[in-house]
Amino acid sequence: MASSDEICKSVAFHLMDIAKLGNPSHVVPQTIILKWKPPPADCYKVNVDASFHPRTMTGGWGFVARDCSGNFLEAGAGNFLNVASALQAEALAILRSIERVADLGMTRIILETDAATLGQALRSEVYDRSPNGALFRQIRDVMCSHFIQCTVSVCPRACNSVADKLAAHGASVVSPGSCIFMCHIPYFVLDLVFGDMPRASE
How much helix, strand and coil, in percent to the nearest 5, is found in the chain? Predict the structure, then answer.
């Protein structure tokens, strides 16, 4: 038999547990999983990313276009020579990507990047007097002249993993100054593309 002192300690312990359940400060927060989201049914989503190597002033770019079901439509990757900054690489990646999807006949797109500064530069004129201002204006001109709808969206980096991998491919594998386009899912992003596809419960 437990002593009265042991019983009192046990009761006190369980009362503390019960009190924690009713205290919001002890509630374990749910983990938020960041994931790529498909576009509405009437447009396509084009995710773009770039890589930049400051030591060599080179880099790469990549994009992937998908529909409202997450189906892969096309991807591209390219290599940069003589880029001045990471921001310039990101902007050039956008320009190359929208020129390509315009050639494919896409007229309604959501353009998604994980570069917040670039997103702001394309949605306003706030950076038009910066060193890359002319490039930002050129991109906006292409957006206005080649698309019925072109919305710029900034996403967390975790939601841009396919484009990130394509950009790394462009920087390290694609011949200097050149680019490639792929109408089938490249093997090195196969798992990422299928991982992004919406589930039936979503």
Answer: 45, 20, 35
Contacts of 17 (CB under 8 A, 6+ apart): none
pLDDT digits (tens, 9 = 90+) for 166-184: 999 999 999 999 999 999 9
Does some domain include residue 11? no
The answer to whether residue 12 sits within a structural domain is no
**103 — phi, psi (to 5°)?**
-65, -30
Single pTM value for the model:
0.83
Name the domain count of the chain: 1
In a domain, 25, yes or no: no
52 in a domain, yes or no?
yes
Instruction: Give me the CATH number covering residue 155.
Output: 3.30.420.10
Closest Cα partner for 58 from 144, 170, 140? 170
CA-closest candidate to residue 132, choices 87, 197, 194: 87
Give residue 174's domain range. 44-196
Question: How far apart (Å, rounded) are the C-alpha atoms in residues 33 and 20?
Answer: 26
Alpha helices in the chain (DSSP H): 4-21, 86-103, 116-123, 133-146, 161-172, 190-196
Exposure string over 17-44, b if 16+ CB within 10 A, otherwise e: eeeeeeeeeeeeeeeeeeebebbeeebb
Residue 93 DSSP class = H
